[in-house]
Design a protein that fits this description.
Length: about 250
């Protein structure tokens, strides 16, 4: 009797092992998904920051499920993204960041606008998104090295959308300073970076105007590369920053 029980148990172990091996015998993800997030009006890259707070791509794989768990890909600083380890399949894709959501719902939860894309990912698949940034930040000329060793930059802030639901007040603007080009709210030197805050609708007066922001902390170290970048945000949602492109400055 003991032998019979032993053999039965052994067979169950073998069957279980065989089943597991079949379940794990899927090909590794090897498809490439790439694309960009650009301004719907100007076709320029929508600048963002790296990591949390930046632009990300949302994927819903609907090949096997009508209610899949979302997957996310972070974009690069210039709004482009690439991932070479994606499973082949059918996906619903959208972009999320400091811009008008591509999928809009009303107060009852009904979808009123849906600009997501349904794509079949196989081989190399390119999916681009056109969005309306909350704030556009335009560099006006090159950064200026001042006589006291500080750096000043000039920018122009304008609304990036005519949708009144996404024209909340601007809460603040930063001159981010870093020793790498990846500067932003996640990576900056607080000794030199400068924040300007605005109460209520006060920032409306500067929209479309050239403003100057100067580093704080006195003279910057000599013979050093710095990257300066301006970010601004509105009082909406996750309060993510819109940016201009980083500019390099080398102190004498």
């Amino acid at each position: 009797m003991k032998k019979i029980v032993y053999y039965i148990a052994l067979c169950l172990v073998i069957i279980a092992g065989s089943s597991c091996s079949k379940l794990d015998n899927y090909p590794a993800p090897a498809e490439t998904l790439a694309g960009s997030v650009t301004d719907a009006t100007t076709n320029e890259a929508v600048q963002t920051e790296i990591g949390s707070g930046g632009t990300r791509i949302k994927l819903l794989e609907v090949s096997y499920s009508a209610n899949p768990t979302p997957q996310y890909l972070n974009s690069r600083q210039d709004g482009t993204y690439t991932n070479t380890k994606i499973f082949a399949g059918k996906y619903i894709m959208s972009a999320e960041g400091p811009f008008v959501p591509l999928v809009l719902t009303n107060s009852e939860g009904d979808t009123v606008s849906n600009k997501s894309q349904t794509v079949q990912v196989k081989g190399v698949t390119t999916v681009n998104f056109k969005v309306e940034p909350f704030i556009k930040i335009e560099s006006v000329g090159a950064p200026v090295l001042n006589g006291d060793g500080t750096i000043s930059v000039q920018v122009k802030l304008t609304r990036g959308t005519t949708n009144a639901d996404f024209q909340q007040n601007i809460t603040d603007a930063w001159l981010f300073v870093s020793n790498t080009q990846f500067d932003g709210n996640n990576n900056y030197d607080p000794r030199y970076s400068t924040q300007i805050t605005y109460d209520g609708s006060a920032a409306n007066a500067i929209l479309g105007q050239t403003i100057t922001i100067t580093t704080k902390g006195g003279q910057l170290p000599a013979k050093t590369d710095f990257f300066v970048r301006v970010g601004a945000r509105i009082d909406y949602g996750l309060k993510q920053y819109n940016y201009n492109a980083p500019q390099k400055v080398t102190t004498p």
